[in-house]
Amino acid sequence: MELPESYQQEMKQLLKEEYPDYLSALHKPALHALRINTLKISVPDFLAAFPYDLSPVPWCSTSFYYHQDGITTDPYDYAGLYYVQEPSASLPASVLPVEPGDKVLDLCAAPGGKTTQLAAKLQGQGVLIANDISVSRCQILLRALERAGVKNSIVTSAAPSQLSDLFAGWFDKILVDAPCSGEGMFRKDPAMRTSWLEKGPDYYAPLQKEILANAVHMLKPGGRLVYSTCTFSIKEDEEVIQDALDRFCDLHVVPVPYADGFVQNAYGTKLFPHRIKGEGHFVCLLAKDGSSEKHIEKQDVAFAKDGMQVTADHAQIRRIKEKILLEPDIDIDLHGIRVLRSGLLLGEDKGKQFAFSQPMAMAMREEDAENCLYLSRKDERVMRYLRGETIDIHDEPVKPGWCLVCVDHNPLGFGKVTGHILKNKLSSSWVMH
Ligand SMILES: C[S@@+](CC[C@H](N)C(=O)[O-])C[C@H]1O[C@@H](n2cnc3c(N)ncnc32)[C@H](O)[C@@H]1O
After folding, report:
1. What number does the ligand 1 atom closest to the CA of 106 have?
2. Model confidence over 373-414: pLDDT tens digits?
3. Does residue 159 line the site of ligand 1, with CB under 6 A?
């Protein structure tokens, strides 16, 4: 589909002599990137082990372009070692200065690309509230957090106005990756051009202003907030920031580091597909005046059973019927808010036996298990295990009973060893099809 006429006029005004370059960029293929999950593996260790060609995305130290197929069916993807993320989408969370121990809110979080990036920055310390108004999209978000091995998140599905007073002045860092008209997606997803005609900047701008105002209300003095969109419209970007600056006199814009091709003004940074290798984004970093203190907790063993353990920062064990969860200990009563998951699901306690959950395996490190089966990524048993099959044990030194199955030292899931057989304990919804 052609670009909508009124959009063409807006972009001509915005880009002036660069407009033809923008148009020709729309005919080039979209670019693909993956972001290494540094909650599980360091960048050098991942690059040393991963067999595909990767090249760095200039504005995000954990993001890399890839050019091959097969990335989304690789065992390392299954192990949560990376997340496939459009290159320019890695900028917002990379400029939010999240530190371990922070209380972080991702207000429009689903499907979870930026949430998992924020969780990696927290390194398991502090708490991450991941919210999205759409319950169905929250299910995808929850799975992304589980696969990434995140222990300290709470997934809620609420309108920002429902959270605003409850969490007034509570968060150190907030990401508002707002719903938008998606102009930056026109190359990757031409269907966005049709939805732009139905819901364009005039539809989204009032919604974005309201979402951002609620977010600022939840930010601590001294806190930082990123507002981002994947659109170029001044109405949805600069004018939304101006509205927040008009409403909150203790708010100001903070410059973000420049990378080649960025377009920067007093409101933020724009990424255009003819200037950078990516689809397009707008990012603004805001600071609230003042200062606040926080302290980092040390990680303790929080749960241990049958030779498997999970460590956590400031967490408590909670039982909901048979389900056992490791829950971040926050001082806010979430009664009345739809909570899809609070913390990490450890497993189900059925009296005589305890069944470990797949999210627990994803949140463990090899040293958290007394009994591990180590498989190399070249071993054909890796894919058989991921397909839910029983696998043979060769001469690996594993003991009978619960066992953590690892690919190159990275946990994939549980099994139970009897003799020379490993019975597969992947739950059906995690089996690779
Ligand atoms: C751009 S997407 C977020 C993408 C996500 N941050 C990521 O990186 O994977 C915007 C999200 O805002 C949510 N949304 C729509 N209206 C909303 C509202 N009024 N309040 C909060 N979230 C809203 C949508 O469901 C959608 O998931």
Report:
1. 6
2. 999 999 999 999 999 999 999 989 999 999 999 999 999 999
3. yes
Query: DSSP letter at 369?
Result: B
**336: which 2 tokens?**
């009345």
Burial class (CB in 10 A: 0-12, 13-18, 19+), 377: middle
- Of 5-9, 203-207, 315-319, give the range with the top mean pLDDT: 203-207
Q: Give the ipTM of the model, two decimals please.
A: 0.99
User: Backbone dihedral region of 290: left (phi > 0), alpha (psi from -120 to 50 degrees) or beta?
Assistant: left
Contacts with 214 (C-beta within 8 Å, 6 or more apart), sequence order: 107, 160, 161, 163, 164
The answer to whether the CB of 398 falls within 8 A of the CB of 372 is: yes
| pTM: predicted TM-score of the whole model, two decimal places | 0.96
Distance between CA atoms of 313 and 301, rounded to whole angstroms? 9
Distance 132 CA to ligand 1 centre (A): 6
Sign (positive or negative) of CA dihedral 15, 285, 201, 90: positive
Q: In testing the pocket of ligand 1, which one of 90, 108, 162 has its CB within 8 Å of the most ligand atoms?
A: 108
Active site residues: 230
How far, in Å, is the centroid of ligand 1 from the Cα of 380? 39
The answer, yes or no, to whether any atom of ligand 1 lies below 6 A from the CB of 211, is yes
Per-residue confidence (pLDDT) for residue 299, from 0 to 100: 66
What are 177's two structure tokens? 């990756």
**Among the listed ranges 149-158, 226-235, 284-293, which one has the minimum average pLDDT value?**
284-293
249 a known binding residue? Answer: no
Degrees to nearest 5, angle at CA 125 with 119 and 129: 50
Most confident range, picked from 151-155, 329-333, 351-355: 151-155
Judging by DSSP bridges, how do beta strands 353-356 and 372-375 pair with one another?
unpaired
Supply the DSSP symbol for 429.
G
Strand-pair partners of 130:
106, 155
Q: Is 226 in the pocket of ligand 1 (CB under 6 A)?
A: no
Q: Which atom, in ligand 1's list, is nearest to the CA of 178?
A: 10
- Is residue 171 within 8 Å of 153, Cβ to Cβ? no
Give distance in angstroms: CA of 80 to centre of ligand 1: 23
